[in-house]
Amino acid sequence: MKNSEHKRSELDKFFGDQLSRWTLACDNFRALKGVQVKEFPMRGLKVKLQHNPARIVSSAAKTDSASLKARACFLCRENRPAEQFNLTFEGRKGKRYDILVNPYPIFPNHLVIALASHREQSIWSRYVDMLDLARNYQGYTFFFFFPRCGASAPDHHHFQATLNGRMPLELDVDGLLDMAVRYPQNAELQFLASVRDAQLYWYNRFARGIFALRARTAKSMAKLFYRLLDCVTVPEGEKEPLFNLITYYKSGEYRSIVIFRTGHRSHHYFSDGPDHLTMSPGCADVAGMFIVPVKEDFEKITPELLCEMMDEVTLDEEAEQRIIRKLTRTQPLLEVGILSAPEIAFEMISDGAGVQRASYREGRIDYNGVLYDELFFEASTPSTMFAEPSFLLHDVVIGKGFHWERHETQKFAGSLKIIVCEGKLTAVNLVGVEDYLVSVISSEMNSRASLEFLKAHAVISRSWVMSRIAARHGRKSADGNPAFKGLAFQEKLNSTPSLVTMLDSQIGAEKGQEDGYVRWYGQDEHRCFDVCADDHCQRYQGLTRVIGENARKVIDQTWGQLLCYGGEICDARFSKSCGGVMELFSSCWEDRDYPYLQALPDTPDHDPAGEPFCLVEDGKLLSQLLNDYDLEGFGANGWDEEYTLEELSSLIESKSGRHIGRLEALTALEKGPSGRVKKLLVQGSEGHFTVGKELEIRRILSRSHLKSSDFEAIFEDGRVRFHGKGWGHGVGLCQIGAAVMAERGYDYRAILQHYYPGSEIIDRQ
C-alpha cells in the first residue's frame, strides 16, 4: 500500500511539473474546466455529453494505413514536442512504457501510457502490464482502445488513464460489483464463469456485449480475460476481437470492464443529412461519456440518436448471446482410468507438498500409514471453461503392449481418485468430456496438424466416448446398443463446468473350441471407470502433449457436436491407417455391421481406381501429422517385421497358450474386404489351431502387435518375414487419410462423410 501511495504521489508531482512547462497542455486542461456538459438517462445509465472542441483532433483523425504511413507517429519519442517529458514504467518481460500527459484531455489528470518502442496496438501479452499499472497507480483507471474502436494512434501501442470514477459505465459496474458478493443474483450483473479466484459477469443494460471481471491475482485475471476474448469472433483481417477495455484496482482486487465492438464509426459520421455526427466513439463514449467536438452536434443530440450510434458500433443480441453460450456451456463428467499398480506416486500441484505415495495393503489403500477405501483429491481450479492443471502422475505407462511402450510423468486437469480395483490401486481422473478431448486429439495425432482434420477427430472422439459413458451406465436399447434416440441422454449425464480422461482394455468375448479360438477386445464394460487412457480406448495423456492453441480451438469450434446415424450416436471407430481400403466392423469385433462403417476405398469419391489418401510418403507432411513415437518405424505404403522360426514359434506358444512345436505355416482362412486377416490357421510340427479376430492375430504374431493383420507371411531360410500395409484395424476414419484430405482442402464435414457415409453431425448443445 505504501508503495502504491508513493507511486501515486510521484505521478501527481509529474503531472503538475508537466503542466508548468508545457503551455499547450496547460491551456487545454484549463479549458477543460469550462467545457459544457449535459446529462440524461439512456437505457438504465445516466450518461454525459461533453462539448470539447479540442477533441476534433482525435474524432476526425484518419486511421487508415495510408494516412498512418504518411504522418510521423506522435507517440514515438523522437517525434514528441520538446516540452513533453515522461515517467518510465517497466512492464513484464522487459517491456518499457512512457507515461505522458495527454495534451488534448477529456478528463482531469488525463494520461497516455505509450510503449517505448513503436509496436501496433494490441492487448496480447500486454494486459498484465495494464493490471500492473492499475495496482501501482491506485486511484487511476486505465483504458484501452482497439485500433478500430477509437484509437487515433493504432500503430503505436498505448493505454490511457484518468482518475477513478470519471466514466458513467465504470461507476455503475463498480457499484454492482460491490453488491455482487451480497446479492449474487442481480439481474443487471449476472455471474457467468470463473477461473481460480477470478469471476466474470455479464452487464445487462445500456449496450450489448459488456462484461465485467474481478480477481485478486493478476494471473487469474489474465487467464479469464483471454478466455473471454477466445469466445468472441475475430473479424476477417484482424488479429484480435474489436473491443474497448477499462481496468482499475480497488479494495485488494483487479477490476476490468470489456465493451465489445463491431466497428469504429457509425453511419452518422459519414452522413450529410440531419443525423450527421462528427463523433468517433472511443472507450469513453461507449462507457457513457460522449465526447462531442462540434457545437451543432452537441445541441441536437438526443438519447435516441445516441442509441442508434451505439447499436451500430456495439454487438447485436445474437452475437452477445453467442459469447454467453460459450462462457456458460457445461461438460458431462468422465472417469478415466490412467494407471494401475501396487503403488502410485502423484503430486497435487496446488498444495506444494511434492511427491506423495499410496500403496496397496490388505485390500485397501495405505496413505501416510492410514488405510482408506478410496482417496479423492478435488480439482482446485474448477472452471466453466477449459480446466487448469491439477496433478501429476508418475510412471504412467503409454502404448502398453505396443512397440512404442514407455513410462512417463504426466500432468492432468480435473480431480484425482485412487481406488482399489482387481487387487491393485487404480488412479482415475475425473474430468469434463471437452477437456478430455483436448488431450485426445493432441495425443492421437500431432496437435499442429490441420484444423479441419483435428475438428473431424474431435467429433468422432466425442461421439465414441459419449457412447461409452452411456453403455457403462446401463442406458441401452433392446438390442444391447447404447440408446441415444433423439439424444435424450443428456439429462441423465452428470454435467460439470470442466474436466475429463481414459485407459484399460477388456476382453469382449471369447469362443473356445478344441482347434482354435476367436477373441476380440472391447471397451464397453470397464468396471471401475468409463474409459482407459491408452490405445485400447483412446489415447489420453492429460496435458502432456497439448502444445499450442489448435487443440483448444477445435474443441471450442465443435463443442458438443456428435456424429449420428438414424438418431443414434455412431460407434465412431478410427485407426492410424486403413492401408487404402476401409474395413468392416465385423472383421474386428462382434459379428455385426453398421451402415455408416462400410468397406470403401480410401480414395476421392471412393473410386477403386483412385490413389488412396493414406498412402503418402511425404516425410515433412507426416511429421506434422504424427507424434514422435508414431513416426518410429512408420511406412505408409508398407511395413516389415522379421523373426526366426524359433523366435516366432516361441512367441505364438507363449501368447496363445497353444503348443505347436516348430511353426510350419500361417494360412489366412478368412479375410475382410481390406485384406485384413480375420481368421488364421497356425500350423506347427506338433499341433495346429485357428485364431481370430484381427487384433488377437496381430498380438500372437509379434513381441508387441503387428501394425495390422493385412500382411503376407514369407517363410525362407529359417525365418519368417511379415510384409504388410495399414496400421490398426482400418475401421471408420483413417487418421493419415483424413489428415491428407484436410491438407488438400476438404473441410471436417466432408471428411466425416467420406469415412462415415450417411451420418450427420448433431449439436448436443
TL;DR of this structure?
This protein is of the alpha+beta class and 765 residues long. Helix content is 26%, strand content 29%. The chain has a ten-stranded antiparallel sheet. Strands 14, 19, 22, 23, 24 and 27 form a six-stranded mixed sheet that branches. Strands 18-17-16-15-20-21 form a six-stranded antiparallel sheet, with no helix packed on it.
Architecture overview:
There is one protein chain. The chain has three domains: 2-35 and 73-259, 2-Layer Sandwich (HIT family, subunit A), CATH 3.30.428; 340-615 and 732-763, no CATH class; 639-724, no CATH class. Helices cover 26% and strands 29% of the residues. The chain has 20 helices and 38 strands. The longest helix has 22 residues, at 451-472. It starts with a helix and ends with a strand. Residues 475-513 have low confidence and may be disordered.
What strand line-up does the widest sheet have? 3-4-5-7-6-11-12-10-9-8
What is the number of beta strands? 38
| Terminal Cα span | 47 Å
Radius of gyration: 32 Å
Q: What is the general shape?
A: elongated
* Class inferred from helices and paired strands: alpha+beta
**Mean pLDDT reading:** 85
Helix content percent band: 25-40%
Multimeric organization: single chain
Largest sheet: 10 strands, antiparallel
Low-confidence stretches: 475-513
Tally of separate domains: 3
Tally of DSSP helical segments? 20
User: What is the strand content?
Assistant: 25-35%
